[in-house]
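Batch manifest, entry 17 of 40.
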Amino acid sequence: MCETILVTGGAGYVGSHCVLEFLLNKYDVIVVDNLVNSVRLEGKELPESLIQVERLTNRKVKQYINGDLKDESFLDKVFTDHKIDVVVHFAALKSVGESVAKPLEYYENNVSGTIKLLKSMRKFGVKKLIFSSSATVYGDPQELPLVETSPTGQTCTNPYGRTKHMIIKAFESANGIKIPYKIVERRPGDVTALYADSQLALEKLEWRAVRSLQEMCASAWKWQSNHPNGYNTKK
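Output type: structure tokens
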């Protein structure tokens, strides 16, 4: 019998890509999302990202549940209704600028919501959690690239936790277009640079990064060109 994975924030960008991989690896997947960072079109049961995931994998998400992690009774019902083996936690607000302007909302959602999720997991005996954090927890680091043992929380510069010039140039090169831009000061809370050393992932998981920045930019532009209004684009 395959394990059941609960993915919080599973309709978002990172979450939906992980749901796709879980389905391809024959796990049963339950998704909880409040659609703050995703889209469900009128008349559809699933968010559009999960519809595309099901199409690509030819497998079904076991259940999508619209709800908020700050609601303890909602969480308890999810764990009561389903035997969950693992929780993968992506649900979080994520805008650096907004987090500086609205810190209380970010603490309430990202910290309080996670605590309530952990309490429900404890109540129902679910002991396996994968937490998707942010590189901003490393603040403005003294050494790069970051590794798993790099200190966190010491120099955080924003409640959510480099300039974009290199990415702009890569995007222009990959897609043959010019992007108008203006160099200004970093947003409040932004740090100079954050990037990770993936050596441990190679050693433990036999995973290595194979896509280039240009490939990423080309893929992103292809999707945006085909969906100028996002998932609301009429086909």
